[in-house]
Amino acid sequence: MRIRSIRAGRRKPGLMAQHLKAVEAASVISGAKAEGVHGGSTELVFRPGNLSPGEYRFDIGTAGSTSLVLQAVLLPLALCGAPSSLAITGGTHVAWSPCFHYLSLHWMPCLRLIGLVGELTLDRAGYYPKGGGRIRARIAPLSALTPLKMKERGPLQSVHCLSAVTNLPLSVAERQSWQARTRLEGLGVDVSSEEIRLPGIGRGTLLLLLGVFAASRCCFYALGERGKSAEGVADEAVEALLGFQKTEGDVDEYLADQMLLPLALAPGLSELNTARVSRHLLTNAEVIKTFLPVHIEIDAPAGRPGLVRIEGCGLDGLRRMRRGGLPLSLR
To answer: Would you say residue 324 has pLDDT above 90?
Structure first.
């Protein structure tokens, strides 16, 4: 596989620390030979070998996203036929990537619905700019995947609020939680909350809202930063949840994107009604179709609500492809 023009439109083009570690992790678990694996590289050649289960440790060395490295290798390791474990060090709650609690409370439960079993734990939180956080994952061997349909969410039943701080007074978490609960009173549903301290090296805060509907769920969160008040952190997460509530979407835009590849390996039809079609989702769909014999249809342009339909190839289809080989050039 050869990929060109990597992140060419970004302010800093090419591979960054978390991308380099994701490539390294994918190389290690598959015995791959890779070229172009250096900071700022805009072209990558990747020749995978055979997948191997095991106990793996990866250290990004910066506040780069541990979540992105985890998502690069979790599904391949689940296909190895034996359990695996991961320890990844870096940023666990950083911008532009799903934070640890989004993965553990939202993404992983949805993966379990389709048959992928894993357990995520947090040793310590890592924030920008220090990083130093560490997550762990235990991954069970995957025997089969089942399609998923989320098209009718039903009424909102409850909202759970998680407010967390690292190396800051617990009163900051309490202020975040109070602001969120106060603003959500008008929804007319039970709003539970917990305020916790997370161990970690740097300082940071998190306010996460998990909305549970009759037949679906959504998750939104905000992170603290210098100059942002505790109330401002809560308001950011609340506005995202209330915005979703006003749509007819059954899943948030991030979950739709992150479930696309697992569902492409499930046999049969999966359907996700997303509150917003992101450009990332559209790109992800095109890349997956380049690699797999699947049909993915998204009935709306970027920025609009849309129905995502995935006709997956199943694990048998994937095995046939792996035996036959597939030369690719992604531009």
So the answer is: no
Strand duo 2-3 + 329-330: pairing? parallel
**What is the largest distance, in Å, between two alpha-carbon atoms of the chain?**
59
| 280 labelled catalytic | yes
The one-character DSSP state at 200 is B
Domain 1-148 -> CATH class: alpha beta
| Model pLDDT, residue 99 | 98
Domain extents in the chain: 1-148, 151-245, 247-324
Pick from 48, 2, 3, 6: nearest CA to 28: 48
- Of the residues 19, 101, 160, 280, only one is catalytic, namely 280
DSSP label at residue 14: S
How many C-beta neighbours within 10 Å does residue 80 have? 18
pLDDT digit string (tens) for 192-231? 999 999 999 899 999 999 999 999 999 999 999 999 999 9
Strand pairing report for 306-312 and 295-298? antiparallel
With b meaning 16 or more CB within 10 Å and e meaning fewer, what string describes 16-52? bbbbbbbbbbbbebbebebebbeeebeebebebeebe
Q: Out of 3.40.640.10, 3.30.360.20, 3.40.190.290, 3.55.50.30, select the CATH number for domain 151-245.
A: 3.30.360.20
What is the per-residue pLDDT across 53-70, written as a single tens digit (0 to 9) for each? 999 999 999 999 999 999
| Residue from 33, 43, 41, 49 nearest 12 by CA | 41
Q: What is the mean pLDDT of the chain?
A: 94
